Amino acid sequence: MGWSRQLVNAKLQTNNTFKCRHGEYECLLNTVEACAIDAWPDVNEHFPFTYCVENFVYQGKYLQWETCFKTLGLDDKPITDCVESEKGLQLDLKYAAETTALQPPHTYVPWVVVDGQPLYEVETLQRTHVQAVQE
């Protein structure tokens, strides 16, 4: 085939692996976060973990993400089992397909769409949110 799909920060290769724009840790942590959403589908359960992981990313401390389990009192087994298995790849492929199917197409991060219209600026996001809440 010889083609790949660009997913903004990750490129899906023809062999169903990913090459991430920001390196191997971005790919790993994409899988970690996909596994967290799968293991803890309630946003109140997975979001604190994702926030903790992303906080370490923001600080450039990519290897510290595993401390989030202890910090939040979470069992690491569901996530590590998922990441180290075929399930992690399948979740990555699932989210890649969802991203590719977005309408309008996803072109940058963060990609926020309200009523089918992408919001290009924070001010637009705030204004649109207020309008949507008032309706």
TrEMBL record:
The keyword Nucleotidyltransferase does not apply. It is found in: Secreted. Transmembrane segments: none annotated. One of its GO terms (molecular function) is oxidoreductase activity, acting on a sulfur group of donors, disulfide as acceptor. Its main location: secreted. One of its GO terms (cellular component) is extracellular region. Keywords: Glycoprotein, Secreted, Signal. Pfam families: GILT (PF03227). PANTHER family: GAMMA-INTERFERON INDUCIBLE LYSOSOMAL THIOL REDUCTASE GILT, GAMMA-INTERFERON-INDUCIBLE LYSOSOMAL THIOL REDUCTASE. Belongs to the GILT family. This is Reductase. The lineage of its organism: Eukaryota, Viridiplantae, Streptophyta, Embryophyta, Tracheophyta.
